[in-house]
Amino acid sequence: MATTTYSKESAGGSLTARALREGFFAGLVAFGLFFLFVGLETTQNIRNELVLNQRWGLLAIFVAVAAAGRFLGVLYVQPWLAARKTAKAAVADKDVPETFLARNFSKLAILALVLMPPVAVALFGVQGSLKWVDNFGIQILIYVMLAWGLNIVVGLAGLLDLGYVAFYAVGAYSYALLSQHFGFSFWILLPLAGILAAFWGMILGFPVLRLKGDYLAIVTLAFGEIIRLVLINWTEVTKGTFGISGIPKASVFGIWSFDVGAANNFAKVFELPMSSAYYKIFLFYVILALALLTAYVTIRLRRMPIGRAWEALREDEIACRSLGINTVTTKLTAFATGAMFGGFAGSFFAVRQGFVSPESFVFLESAIILAIVVLGGMGSLVGIAVAATVMVGGTELLREMTFLKAIFGPDFTPELYRMLIFGLAMVVVMVWKPRGFVGSREPTAFLHERKAVSGSFTKEGHG
Amino acid sequence: MSETLLKVHAVETYYGNIRALAGVDVEVNRGEIVSLIGANGAGKSTLMMTICGSPQARTGTVTFDGQDITRLPTHEIARLRIAQSPEGRRIFPRMTVYENLQMGASLDKLKYFDEDVEKIFTLFPRLKERQAQRGGTLSGGEQQMLSIGRALMARPKLLLLDEPSLGLAPLIVKQIFDAIKVLNKEQGLTVFLVEQNAFAALKLSDRGYVMVNGRVTMSGSGKELLANPEVRAAYLEGGRH
Question: Which keywords annotate this record (chain A) (predicted)?
């Protein structure tokens, strides 16, 4: 490694040579590393004998990827990063004018979401749109909403909650049980599920009022598990691990139904061919509306005294008290508000699946929601939405990657690598952007002009 | 003028089993600047925190404006217009200067905010320059100004200042002490000040108390204490204690 600086005149020849050399060495190292791990495989045959399989093809792929990766990295990525660094340093002091896209990002995103189902239907047909509307659209929006709800507790009030999925469960079971036993409609039970979840949020809030940080996290974690275990073991009511199935569908405010037998079935009324896609498209708009409601309420609350108090509480509890803020009610309202949105999302989840069981409310869900909030940048709605789209959408995309079977053999199931990729993505984001995708906090009060305050000015790990 | 605003009577405060205050009597009259001086660990900050109800006194009483506040929670005490600039400033680091000041005015739901914020900006012009900046990015002196400014936004009857000179350059300390004097003279604000910087504090104060090991050992007017040989030896000339 004789040359570490990139002088412009000698860039062409020596850089390529260096890239080739380093690529070759990377391949050599990869060969040495993977020779025994990948190149040779031992399995047992039917008579319990050890069989040695040789996988030279796979080994070759590993070595080739390492060599090519290093070659391209040295030749293109490193100079590009260096150039970007100098470019950044040059313009650091100037105000970079925001592009139209950046300024209106959220408006354009909402517009795109509203237009998505008709576009999907136009492109892929009614049945073909299901994948895009349901698997991607609804799935991502549920997580966006959950993460926005949790953001109130974690991002604004700074209370680390590892048991958020409990409120999701309360909302889902509220809808499932009350609709089956009392026959209430979705639109009555949706607010009710939110209220019940908020109530449970307060119940959790009381014992943990004096706790902070790690201790709070552990108790909320336990709370999430308690709710799940109650759902498993209280079999008379919740039917335990069997779950509750046959949950009634939602209707368009009672005007049109999506039950196949009903006289006012949506498809029949409009004389459309029967398809489950209409219901999914309807649900897409419901969750979109719910998610936007969450965002709207969060934005409004941040400008109101209670939202201010949440943020102040996150920053410094003692200072809050000395300013006359009642930290008890502030914490309880944060828990209750966050839980309420969890409850909304839960009852939506129940109506979408038509089936709930405790399996849907494991700790992993809480962890994923929290990860989305942290990755997105705590407190930032746009950042969280981006994180949810990348994380949830990315894992859904894995299901589509059947072509990978051609490389790794027919037994390869890409979705099994979901958590691995999720974890890798978290590590990468945290290394590059320690405060999440959108790390800056937008102030809510201005005297004369609006000015974003960059997170890079403050010490890391302070918020 | 000499009406008692704050009266601390025979207060004992404990941290667990450790007695931090061993029967303290302190009085602050309306319109006065009173300072409390003493060495590290004498219990000065504990007394300040006890007045604010965190921790609460185990025995004894704290009376403010004729009302017993010994057992009130901290936020209720703050609502009686006892504003505090706590030790270590404790501003909100990720909020802007402007938002920090708004938090200070939350008791009145920002009713007098526009009018009061101008007063603060006149008192501390630096804060006006820095208003859109995050609290955490301010220098130590600016943070102290913000902390005092935020406390003043609550329109306090009594301002408690815990070590406003801590870690600041002498010039900034002078600016801050001058501001305290202006507030006292022009607005009649009552100030109770805890300080290590005994000389500056006593010079500013109408009266002072000296605290040693959780007890008040001496009291008197600022001038008397400044002239007192024991005080001089222990807190002003240094090194001989």
Answer: Cell membrane, Membrane, Transmembrane, Transmembrane helix
pLDDT in tens, A163-196: 899 999 999 999 999 988 888 888 888 999 999 9
- What pLDDT digit, counting tens, does each position of A316-370 carry? 888 888 888 888 889 999 999 999 999 999 999 999 888 888 888 989 889 889 9
Residue B104 contacts A, CB cutoff 8 Å: yes
Residue A462 forms contact with B (CB below 8 Å): yes
* CB B89 within 8 Å of CB B143: yes
Q: HSE on the CB side for A442, CA within 13 Å?
A: 12
**Could you report the predicted ipTM of this complex, rounded to two decimals?**
0.85
Q: How far apart are CA B184 and CA B176, in angstroms?
A: 12
Share of residues in chain B with pLDDT > 90 (%)? 49
| H/E stretch holding B158 | strand B158-162
Measuring CA to CA, which residue among A353, A343, A360, A334 is closest to residue A190? A343
Using one digit for the tens of pLDDT, what is the confidence trace for B112-153? 888 889 989 998 988 999 988 988 899 888 999 999 999 999
Domains in chain B, start-ordered, CATH in brackets? 1-75+193-241 (3.40.50.300)
Q: Are B77 and B107 in contact (CB under 8 A)?
A: no
pLDDT higher than 80, residue A406: no
What one-letter code names the amino acid at B14? Y
Distance from CA of A225 to the nearest CA of B (A): 33
Strand ranges (E), B30-144? 33-38, 59-64, 67-68, 82-85
Structure tokens at A296: 């709207």
Assess contact for B74 and B85: CB atoms under 8 A.
no
Q: Whats the size of chain B, residue-wise?
A: 241
DSSP category for residue A457: G
Domain ranges for chain A, please list them.
12-84, 119-365
Please state, in angstroms and as integers, the Cα–Cα distance from residue B204 to each residue in B6, B29, B184, B207, following that order.
Answer: 19, 15, 10, 9
The first and second tokens of residue A85, run together, are 């660094």
Distances (CA, A) of A146 to A139, A192, A240, A416: 11, 17, 24, 24
Chain A interface, best mutation among B84, B98, B99, by max A CB count within 10 A: B99
- CA A410 to chain centroid, in Å, comes to 30
What DSSP string describes A289-309?
HHHHHHHHHHHHHHHSHHHHH
Of A168, A166, A163, A164, which is closest to residue A227 (Cα–Cα)?
Answer: A166
B113 reaches A (C-beta below 8 A):
no
